[in-house]
Amino acid sequence: MTDISKSNYYMPFPAGPVVDNNRNMTVTFQRFMLSLFNRTGKEQGVDSVYDEQQTETAIEKAAQAESDAQIAQETAQTAQETASASQAAASAAQASAAAAQSTADAGVAAATKAQETADDAVADAQSALKAAEDVLIMTLLTSSAQAAKTAQSLDDAALMAAQSQIWPSLLLQSSQAST
Predict the structure, then answer these.
(1) What's the pLDDT tens digit per position in 82-98?
(2) 3-state secondary structure string, the chain?
(3) C-alpha 120: how far from chain center
(4) Which pLDDT band, with edges at 50, 70 and 90, does 179 fall under?
(5) Which residues, in sequence order, are bridge partners of residue 25?
(6) How far apart are CA 28 and CA 1, in angstroms?
(7) Where are the domains of the chain?
(8) The pTM is what?
(9) d(C-alpha 134, C-alpha 140), whole Å
(10) Average pLDDT over residues 15-32
(11) Residue 34: its pLDDT value, please?
């Protein structure tokens, strides 16, 4: 009579008399009242089965929320680790870029110094060439003068000038430019 399985929850209001001739509850009405008493959690207006269902639902939802929170926490941890790794990679890339910039600046400075050295070398070479040319002209003039002093003919002097490809007009220009 106290069986409260789910199949026994529904119980219609008993038909027939509620009390017998001695004013005692009938067996059918007693069974109905006991069922109602068990079903309501022994308090009027409270359905213990409904409360149990709601409690179980709340527990299940809380467990699901806890599981979701755990997954979200693990995802956040993974994201944080990924962000840390990305930040480390970015720092390394920035350091590499700074080192490359420093190397490039040093290369530009070395190239500028090399260009200046090359320009100085060109200027020195031009000065040396001009000096060698002047020495050659002076040598030819001196040798021409010596040839004239030794009474060699002007034909010999012209022949020497032709062989050295310096003509008397160039000799005159060169001697006038150096004075």
Answers:
(1) 999 999 999 999 999 99
(2) CCCCCHHHCCCCCCCCCCECCCCCECHHHHHHHHHHHHHCCCCCCCCHHHHHHHHHHHHHHHHHHHHHHHHHHHHHHHHHHHHHHHHHHHHHHHHHHHHHHHHHHHHHHHHHHHHHHHHHHHHHHHHHHHHHHHHHHHHHHHHHHHHHHCCCCHHHHHHHHHHCCCCHHHHHHHHHHHC
(3) 45
(4) low
(5) 19
(6) 11
(7) 1-46, 125-178
(8) 0.38
(9) 10
(10) 90
(11) 83
Question: Distance between CA atoms of 34 and 32, rounded to whole angstroms?
Answer: 6
Q: How far, in Å, CA of 17 to CA of 24, rounded?
A: 11
Report the Cα–Cα distance between both ends of the chain, in Å, rounded.
146
pLDDT tens digits, 125-173: 999 889 888 888 888 777 766 665 654 566 666 677 677 766 555 555 5
Task: Give me the count of residues in the chain.
Answer: 179
- CA separation for the pair 52, 58 (Å, rounded): 10
CB atoms within 10 A of CB 140: 19
* Angstrom distance (rounded) from CA 122 to CA 128: 10
